[in-house]
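Final report, section 2: Outcomes. Of the targets proposed, Long-chain-fatty-acid--CoA ligase is the one most frequently requested by collaborating groups, and we therefore present its record in full.
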Amino acid sequence: MSSTGDGLVLDLPPGVPREVEVPDESLVAALDRAAATWPDRVALDFLGATTTYRELADAAARGAQVLLDLGVQPGDRVALAIPNCPAHVVAFYAALRVGAVVVEHNPTYTADELAHQLADSGAVVALVWQKTVPAVRATLDRTAVRAVVAVDLSADLPWRSRFALRLPVAKARRTRAAMCGPVPPGVPSWHRLVASARPVRDDVPGPGADDVALLQYTGGTTGTPKAAVLSHRNLVANALQGHAWTGAVPGTEVVFGVLPFFHAFGLTLCLTYAVRVGATLVAFPSFDPALVLAAQRRRPGTFLPAVPPMLDRLAAAAEKSGTDLTSFRHAISGAMALPPATAQRWEAVTGGLVVEGYGMTETSPVALGNPLTAERRPGTLGLPFPSTEIRVVDQEDPTRDVDAATGGELLIRGPQVFQGYWQRPEETAAQLLPGGWLRTGDVVRVDAGSVVLVDRMKEMIVTGGFKVYPSQVEDHLRTMPGILDVAVVGVPGGDMGESVVAAVVLDADASGVDLTAVREWCERRLARYALPRRLVVLTELPRSQVGKVLRRVVRDQVLAGEPA
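The predicted structure is given below as tokens.
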């Protein structure tokens, strides 16, 4: 490890270039190139229904014409609120092809949650799942949306499955109710519009590399979501960096899309990286281990982006069913810490590697990763991606670098760093420092040449003048017998500033887990000021769509005195 004066220089894995040359092109170029290079290769597999790259490019071109017919102009925002399915991929590339800006939304959001994001982005067209149509239509008096188009999830199924949904049996009715919803008169069907449209003309201008491609909403721990502005160049850069890191052989990979495409992690690894390397994307409408194992038997995967709970559940299901997962050479875990036990279990079942990656929506999203080699260091964030610089700075004064081994706030600079927050110049200025450095709000240290996460600054607890990092307390409490899961938060503590509270989920047969026992367990490893002063037992911890524990929500529950 050394410092250049601008940033730290860490040794990258063998074969990974320190720099990558980001081409001056849009995301659409990768799809056009894949369709020309591998026209008959399966681009998408959705529960057995396949789409080749030629067919995907054609559908996206037809979808682009649909959007033009709906009046979409370059720079207009097009909202997507669709589960993982081929229609989502088609809509994503169709909007980009006409120079529109994609705005991704969780299709299970309520009308109020959608109203804020739709109004904030100024989206003019919304392509949404049938079951989400009522929620979006309920926002029309508060947003600029002038056209709502319904997406029928079942239309992407194999014909046998579509036929089975019409059978007058209970199982078919349950499946149909889960996938489909009633659509009010006057709301057009995306599939019908695309099927009847002609492909967009070649002379219709497409986007440039520096045009905005995506508004991706991120709330983090701060509450109200705000949109990160990501350009085509940002997203192309991150897909290219991911390719350099993984060493994927173009035209050979099979990526399992278990992460939601509307989340930054799933969007980049499944919608942009997969297309750039000519991978087959096996898409799932939701995470279901049984569906994933069935797909594995049909079309063995090679690469799995996931979060730790997914890896653990898949490994357990494979062990129970005897399903062979040894085709998976690589898995990348993100969004939360990867427990060593989960990593060991996955690698034992697959014989492949699982490594942690680190990033934020603001970095498109991946910025650091562990080597995909035997030299990986479980429990660390790893090393900066190619063309990515990092600094470790004083938490109160980000202009001052500190000893990286001691720790401080992580700053990141690279071609994947976002353009700022949509229509929020003050928040942009607070996050993006002069010189293009992004403040992450994460406290890290560098240990033996690898970056280690300490905790998030915004979630740090200050008690009696001492700083307590919740993850350090959580990591220790997870080793305590009887505790299944834990979140540590700070609540107002009078003269102490804040008081440390441990919210725990207990094992079914747990006994003797009380505040006294918890404090005694913590005293083995933690300073006295870090010991929990209160214990709250919950039946489950609130999590985001990708499984990350929402400490902010836990804190609200504790303050509200919510019962277990």
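Residues 254 and 301 are 5 Å apart (CA to CA).
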